[in-house]
Amino acid sequence: MLTAIAAHFVLAAFLPLIARRWGRAAFVVGALAPAATLVFALSRASGALAERHPVETFAWAPNIGLEFTTRFDELALLMIVLVSGIGALVLCYYACYAKPGDRAVSRDSSLLVLFAGSMLGLVLADDVISLYIFWELTTVCSFLLVGGEGLTRKLRKSATQALLVTSLGGLAMLLGLLLLATAAGTTRISEIIANPPGGGVVTAAVLLILLGAFTKSAQVPFHPWLPGAMVAPTPVSAYLHAAAMVKAGVYLVARFAPGFSDLPAWWLPIVVLGLWTMVLGGFRALRQHDLKTLLAYGTISQLGFLMVLVGAGTWIAALADVTLVLAHGLFKSALFLTVGIIDKRTGTRDIRELSGLGARWPALTVFATLAVLSMAGFPPLLGFVGKEAAIEGLLHGEPKDLLLLAGVVLGSVFTVAYSLRFLVGAFGARPTVAPTEAPPSGTVMTTIVGIPAVAGLVLAFVPGLVEPLLAGYADAYSANPPDYHLGLWHGFKLPLLLSIAIIIAGYLLHRTALAPRLAGWVPGPLHAQRGYQASVDGLVALAQSVTGRLQAGSLPIYLGVILVTMVAVPGAGLLSGIETPVDLRAWDSLLQVPLAALVLVAAGTVVLARRRLTAVLLTGVVGYGIGALFIVDGGADLALAQFLVESLTLVVFVFVIRRFPPRFVDGRPYFPRARWVKAGLAAVAGTFVAVLAVLFSGSRQGMPEASRFYAENAESATGATNVVNAIIVDFRAFDTIGEIAVLAIAATGAASLILARARQRPSGGYVPEDAGSERTEVKQ
Amino acid sequence: MTVNITMAVVLAGLYTVGFYLLMQRSLMRVILGIVILGHGANLFLQVAGGPPGEPVFAGSALIEAMVDPLPQALALTAIVITFALTTFLLALAYRSWALLGHDEVQDDVEDRRIREAERRREGMDESDEPDTEPAEAVAGFEAPEASEEVPR
């Protein structure tokens, strides 16, 4: 399985080259990877169904315990069927869909295969870190595929929204996964679920993980990114935004649900938001005229349904959930691909402009009808089988499940209504509109649509083909599974009656067109898109106001902010854990007192000096005073270096200031009081440093080990009696090389700055208009 | 083995003067501030290494009586690097003088622009903005296109 994932990535890297050579055929080449994966996975299906699931591990950072582990179980196999099966179909379809010579071919083919590989890794990953990595890889692929070349504002806006919303959830999920892994003491998902930890941290972790799942699966209130993402090419929408990527959220919840289904913090948000999403998505789908947007809202609704089922947490509900995951992947991809054909052949996908396509394209109409009926839950299709199981599961659960059932029934009525709206809108004849002119729908593309559509029909008659797989997943919820089997006929019982009632109600809703009139009515504050806009605008405004205030462009303000932070943050920490040193002494040697006075007086006078030379000389006095203090401290070499360097500094200063006017140019004071503010801030910060010095040195106990080693071994190891010299030129010689490099760079820089005066390029750099006259003055 | 109070006061004084000079507008004063801060840092390193003692020459005294050699080695490096930095800064000040005719630290133009944009935005918020977004914006891409304006 590791090989399969790697093969996707390698192939994705080569596809641009293939596309340059053979154009659209690159998609067919790209389809090889998911197709081979599907065949391989199906040939190993017995392993996934076995008691012990095959595990593969690749340790990529063993030192810190990071490894990539795949675990091939029932849920993974089911998702591989969708991800790789639909992936291969969509790639083949895209080969016909793309225009010959389109520049997007190399980019999209590569990204789609990359996405297929990421999705494969996501559903196989058994450790939380790799799960997160693949999760974000799919987000990035989605961003790039939605945005395309980013040529229009619409593309950029939709792609950015998809990226922002899903990566927000992704980051929350990462935090949640890490909390969970820490609480459980392992990063392996299978072990976490086998022994779920408990406590407040786990509640927080679970909520964060759910945030990730909800954003990815477009649950209320994060759903608007999904209809927005419909600007992507239709095959991309069919794959990412119907069959695979948006299922990742449902997959994540399904993956963790067996461990946490009893936790209220887990199931409550899932069923509440899931129901809301299911009803809202169906409701809004009824108002769309654009076929693709209609399907997108339908997807939102169905994802809500899937969430509710997995949140219900019973064996039959789980069985229904995975059945519907499969059914939804099949019918929704078929429908999207149908819309792709309509869009490509007729140039529109607005149901107000389409008419009479049903008579023109009988084969496509049959396939689309199969898919639509599966979506609406008509017998004898897989969608019906799943919905029967769902109703059965919710009927015989706890009391809360009956509430859920009521919501699900309402959502299903909407589903039937928008399914009919889609079918009639796309293929029906309208008396008021002339029949749409269209070329034949194309054999290859129609066949590709037919494969998932017919699969939904066949599987409904032989559910035994997939039932071991689906029931194998549901077994995680209950040790004693009830005696229930998927099937078309369970006798004349309540679920069947409810199904019939749903279909009749949905048909009436469609006929009366009541909902389309109501569906525009949403209270302003509940507009999810406005919420998104407001949060993005708020973030931008916050960033701008923080930047505008803190980054005022004035150096004194920057330094002030830095100093305040320096005092406030470590200062507060220091106050909380302060330890008063005991051995406070006034001085160590009497000589220190007059030298200290000299240094302080000189430093204080620098501030007051009006003439540049005075200030420079006083700084020199400070330096020599420090040198004298070094002698008192017993640092002979240090004092020597200090005296030498101080003299050199003075010389350099004098060389430079002889070009400057003798007095400081005290320009207009910006704020008269600013001087005192600056002085006060500087005094606080300076005192803080001194306090730090006292406190930190208080924790020092005699000469440290390293210093003692240098002092003891200097003579024997280096032959030098001066230990400081031995350290600099021998023990720590590499540091000294670095120091010399700094000197060399500074010297080069200084020299080039000074010598550059001679040659002034006319167009180079920023030269203000009045600079010319000044420059000639300097030269004189 | 804390720093004694005299040295702590010197440190406080040097750092205060250094910080104060750094916050000045004159580039020359800023450089002097860096030099004085450098002095303060070197002294910090030295006095944090313990009270005065015998110079560290092997065999000249007992190791227990010697001062710690490591802070001295560090301070020595720091002194030299401060010198290099000072020289480079002086060259910059000189260049600034030669090109611009003054040695004053100017406000950053880009940053000032951001600040002014922020002021303008705050002024705008006070005036009532009409809520023009139609209900169809929920669909994500049916929203009216805003003009493609490059912020200036």
UniProtKB/TrEMBL annotation, chain A:
Residues of the MrpA C-terminal/MbhE domain: 678-754
Any Pfam family matching the protein: Proton_antipo_M
Stretches assigned to the NADH:quinone oxidoreductase/Mrp antiporter transmembrane domain: 125-414
Domain of life: Bacteria
Domain MrpA C-terminal/MbhD as annotated: residue spans: 597-661
Cellular localisation: Cell membrane; Membrane
Coiled coil: none
Protein name: DUF4040 domain-containing protein
UniProtKB/TrEMBL annotation, chain B:
InterPro entries: CPA3_antiporter_subunitC (IPR050601), NUOK/Mnh_C1-like (IPR039428)
Residue ranges, annotated region (Disordered): 116-152
Protein localization: Cell membrane
Bilayer topology term: Multi-pass membrane protein
Pfam family, one: Oxidored_q2
Transmembrane segments: 6-23, 30-50, 70-94
Acidic residues: bias regions: 125-134
Keywords: Cell membrane, Membrane, Transmembrane, Transmembrane helix
Chief subcellular location: membrane
PANTHER family in the record: ANTIPORTER SUBUNIT MNHC2-RELATED
Family per record: Belongs to the CPA3 antiporters (TC 2.A.63) subunit C family.
Name of the featured protein: Na(+)/H(+) antiporter subunit C
Organism: Prauserella endophytica
